[in-house]
């Protein structure tokens, strides 16, 4: 795994501290060994004495009126404690949602998608709960389906949500459009006249699942004060709390939430799944209730990545300068809004890619349909756009007879570029350099199986261990792509994180405790928070308090924001604690050394030192006999604004991040099988706080992009709107045998506006890996390939 790191630029307020285990070191994750050995406790492992098991009954049809529900047989079963339907909900508020509260806790007279929750059961054994749910009789009267743009926007289209009163309703041309965002800049019609070549494309992006390995699960425990304690795997504790408390009819302080072990997320845990259901059953039975989805139910229990249709037009002059871009992006949001409005904002504002194009005409919409609800997934609208605009770049380069990398570099944005929204890119944007690095990397040897003799490994060939070829009909292809992703919440959202830090002496040694509500979903935030505390406070012993709602919100573990935002909150709070320490030190020792009053002082290695390295005192001596220093502070990034609803203009994003990929593939053109040999990547991370974690995030994101390129897609029957492959037998994800070598080239070009100069990094590699693989397959086969994932029949012409 190759790495090439360098830093350009000086970030603000960087503490030069060399305490062991601080920022910049690849310290090991505290949960890593436990997870590898199987000892880590995930949410599905939780247990409580005398607990019941919850089960959800879901709709078997995608759009129907509920004529009747008969729960009598289920209630009569031995071991069943409670059966709940919509009529049993305790509060006036019966819906929830991230932005638009359009999702019913349980279906109210109508189901809008396959797998919608209709009833709940609590029983003393999980099998009893499942059998009881199966005995509930529901009479459905099926209704006409809305499954695509044509059926959603027809003049006589059934309305998925009648009488909409949300804040987007007045700005959309049809009630079945969740949100619409145009972006207009320059004059496309005039720019088109300057174009020597014009290319068009229609692209289809399939519905991808987050495919986290730990299913949705949690434990709700009723409390003596009439409230409930909920232990759950989620991405945003406080957002869950804001949605849960109103439908339970409880004040927020009576719903106490604690993060339990999370087995992956990738956006799929931003929305409510079983949280409300477990609490309802616990309060109804006055017993602890545990809910754990099986894999089949998990496919219905969370949102997915939006499938999309994308229509693009680009023009360029004969010397390779892009003249204009026009596009329309249609995202299928499914039955409920979830994060669709924000995904539309991302898709539209990032649809131009990391290129300088002055004249654009962009429209992005998300539809309400009867398909499964879609929302957040790693890359959040930018993934679909990148797939399309990168295919367009290859088309333009081919039509001009130019090298595809050189063409991209010629049009690459840089620091100072103006985005289509009018926002100036005010931090490094090394797009051309990233492309140069992936192109300059040596290619892996060709047709290695022919020179390996008896040691030839069939796993290196398309088809792998199925032994379908020994190289006959196998063709190599190489493809490139680069993408742009925003970091943090955008469009005027009040995005903040909170951190509480406590510093005290325990057994003669200074110890720091960091308490946030950040959801650790595998990204390594708990590791980085400890590193920041060691750096800023100069201590080696740092305890990470379990995440819960007894501290202020940390926002969502999404949008590549947590290291920037909650890391920033930990840094700021530690700095304030450090100032308190120095105040005590000046009070106790100020008369003994003039540096206490004149020098810039740091905490390093358990001591107070000057910026010149002179030791003034032991930290433990200063804190001895003092009360613990305990502070809780919020951190906000610089403000953003909402995009104009007519022109799309506005400084809507906090930060941009970039990644490039080069894919090398071997394609069996006779059978349509693909082996991805290598996926080399280069990415600017601003500042690597933990290089081991950085490389892991980049390789993980790259692998998810590979999956949607060649295998991952939720198949929804267009005639019934039912999911056809809700299992890991039929929904395929990359295994270790499918995952190629992923060399990582890391740049560290500091963003002066960010803590430590860092740049959010978790999502960017998911963007460009997909179109790079598609470009390589196109080069190998000569096929246009405008749909993802690529299936064998698309390569063999046997569709």
From TrEMBL:
<protein>
    <submittedName>
        <fullName>Xanthine dehydrogenase subunit D</fullName>
        <ecNumber>1.17.1.4</ecNumber>
    </submittedName>
</protein>
<dbReference type="InterPro" id="IPR036856">
    <property type="entry name" value="Ald_Oxase/Xan_DH_a/b_sf"/>
</dbReference>
<dbReference type="Pfam" id="PF02738">
    <property type="entry name" value="MoCoBD_1"/>
</dbReference>
<feature type="compositionally biased region" description="Polar residues">
    <location>
        <begin position="1"/>
        <end position="19"/>
    </location>
</feature>
<dbReference type="InterPro" id="IPR017609">
    <property type="entry name" value="Xanthine_dehydrogenase_dsu"/>
</dbReference>
<dbReference type="InterPro" id="IPR000674">
    <property type="entry name" value="Ald_Oxase/Xan_DH_a/b"/>
</dbReference>
<dbReference type="Pfam" id="PF20256">
    <property type="entry name" value="MoCoBD_2"/>
</dbReference>
<dbReference type="GO" id="GO:0004854">
    <property type="term" value="F:xanthine dehydrogenase activity"/>
</dbReference>
<dbReference type="InterPro" id="IPR037165">
    <property type="entry name" value="AldOxase/xan_DH_Mopterin-bd_sf"/>
</dbReference>
<feature type="region of interest" description="Disordered">
    <location>
        <begin position="1"/>
        <end position="30"/>
    </location>
</feature>
<dbReference type="InterPro" id="IPR016208">
    <property type="entry name" value="Ald_Oxase/xanthine_DH-like"/>
</dbReference>
<feature type="domain" description="Aldehyde oxidase/xanthine dehydrogenase a/b hammerhead">
    <location>
        <begin position="37"/>
        <end position="144"/>
    </location>
</feature>
<keyword id="KW-0560">Oxidoreductase</keyword>
<dbReference type="InterPro" id="IPR008274">
    <property type="entry name" value="AldOxase/xan_DH_MoCoBD1"/>
</dbReference>
<dbReference type="Pfam" id="PF01315">
    <property type="entry name" value="Ald_Xan_dh_C"/>
</dbReference>
<dbReference type="InterPro" id="IPR046867">
    <property type="entry name" value="AldOxase/xan_DH_MoCoBD2"/>
</dbReference>
């Amino acid at each position: 795994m190759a790495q090439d790191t360098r830093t350009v630029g000086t970030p603000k307020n960087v503490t030069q501290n060399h305490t062991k285990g601080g920022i910049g070191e690849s310290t090991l994750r505290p949960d890593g060994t436990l997870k590898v050995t199987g000892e880590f406790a995930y949410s599905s492992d939780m247990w409580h004495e005398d607990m019941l098991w919850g089960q959800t009954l879901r709709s078997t049809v995608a759009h129907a009126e509920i004529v009747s529900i008969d729960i009598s047989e289920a209630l009569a079963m031995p071991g069943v404690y409670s059966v709940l339907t919509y009529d049993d909900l305790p509060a006036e508020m019966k819906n929830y949602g991230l932005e638009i509260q359009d999702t019913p806790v349980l279906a109210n007279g109508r189901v809008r998608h396959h797998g919608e929750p209709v009833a709940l059961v609590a029983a003393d054994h999980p099998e009893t709960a499942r059998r009881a749910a199966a005995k509930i009789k529901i009479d459905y009267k099926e209704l006409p389906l809305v499954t695509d743009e044509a059926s959603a926007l027809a003049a006589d289209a059934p309305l998925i949500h009648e009488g909409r009163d949300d804040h987007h309703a007045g700005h959309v041309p049809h009630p079945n459009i969740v949100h619409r965002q145009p972006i207009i800049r320059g004059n496309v019609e005039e720019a088109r006249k300057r174009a020597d070549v014009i290319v068009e494309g229609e692209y289809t992006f399939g519905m991808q699942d987050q495919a986290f390995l730990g299913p949705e699960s949690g434990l709700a425990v009723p409390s003596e004060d009439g409230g409930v304690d909920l232990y759950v795997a989620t991405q945003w504790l406080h957002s869950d709390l804001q949605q849960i408390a109103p439908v339970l009819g409880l004040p927020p302080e009576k719903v106490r939430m604690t993060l339990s072990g999370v087995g992956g997320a990738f956006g799929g845990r931003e929305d409510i799944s079983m949280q409300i259901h477990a609490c309802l059953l616990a309060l109804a039975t006055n017993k602890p209730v545990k809910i754990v989805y099986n894999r089949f139910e998990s496919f219905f229990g969370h949102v997915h990545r939006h499938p999309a249709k994308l229509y693009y037009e680009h023009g360029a002059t004969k010397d390779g300068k892009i003249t204009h871009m026009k596009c329309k992006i249609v995202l299928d949001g499914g039955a409920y809004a979830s994060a669709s409005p924000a995904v539309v904002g991302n898709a539209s504002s990032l649809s131009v890619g990391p290129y300088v194009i002055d004249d654009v005409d962009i429209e992005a919409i998300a539809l309400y349909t009867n398909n499964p609800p879609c929302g957040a997934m790693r890359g959040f609208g930018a993934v679909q756009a990148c797939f399309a605009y990168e295919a367009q770049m290859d088309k333009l380069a081919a039509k001009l007879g130019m090298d595809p990398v050189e063409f991209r570099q010629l049009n690459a944005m840089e620091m100072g570029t103006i985005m289509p929204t009018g926002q100036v890119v005010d931090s490094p944007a090394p797009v051309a350099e990233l492309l140069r690095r992936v192109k300059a990397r040596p290619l892996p040897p060709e047709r290695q199986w022919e020179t390996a003799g008896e040691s030839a490994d069939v796993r290196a060939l398309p088809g792998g261990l199925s032994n379908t070829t020994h190289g006959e009909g196998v063709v190599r292809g190489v493809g490139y792509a680069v993408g742009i992703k925003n970091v943090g919440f955008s469009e005027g959202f009040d995005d903040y994180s909170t951190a509480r830090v406590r510093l005290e002496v325990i057994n003669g040694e200074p110890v720091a405790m960091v308490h946030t509500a950040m959801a650790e979903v595998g990204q390594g935030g708990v590791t980085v928070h400890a590193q920041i505390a060691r750096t800023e406070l100069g201590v080696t012993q740092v305890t990470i308090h379990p995440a819960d709602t007894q501290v202020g919100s940390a926002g969502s573990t999404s949008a590549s924001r947590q290291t920037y935002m909650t890391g920033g909150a930990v840094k700021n709070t530690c700095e304030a604690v450090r100032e308190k320490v120095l105040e005590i030190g000046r009070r106790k020792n100020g008369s003994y050394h003039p540096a206490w009053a004149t020098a810039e002082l740091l905490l390093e290695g358990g001591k107070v030192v000057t910026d010149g390295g002179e030791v003034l005192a032991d930290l433990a001596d200063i804190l001895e006999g003092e009360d613990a220093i305990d502070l809780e502070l919020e951190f906000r990034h610089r403000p953003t604004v909402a995009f104009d609803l007519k022109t799309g203009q506005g400084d809507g994003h906090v930060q941009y991040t970039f990644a490039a990929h080069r894919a090398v593939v071997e394609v069996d053109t006779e059978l349509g099988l693909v082996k991805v040999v290598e996926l080399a990547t280069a990415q600017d991370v601003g500042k690597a706080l933990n290089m081991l974690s950085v490389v892991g995030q980049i390789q993980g994101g790259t692998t998810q992009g590979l999956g949607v390129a060649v295998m991952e897609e939720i198949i929804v029957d267009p005639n019934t709107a039912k999911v056809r492959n809700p299992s890991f037998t039929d929904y395929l994800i990359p295994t270790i045998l499918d995952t190629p070598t992923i060399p990582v080239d890391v740049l560290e070009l500091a963003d002066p506006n960010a803590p430590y100069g860092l740049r959010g990094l978790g999502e960017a590699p998911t963007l460009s890996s997909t179109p790079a693989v598609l470009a390589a397959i196109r080069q190998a086969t000569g096929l246009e390939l405008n749909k993802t994932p690529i299936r064998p029949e698309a390569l063999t012409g046997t569709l």
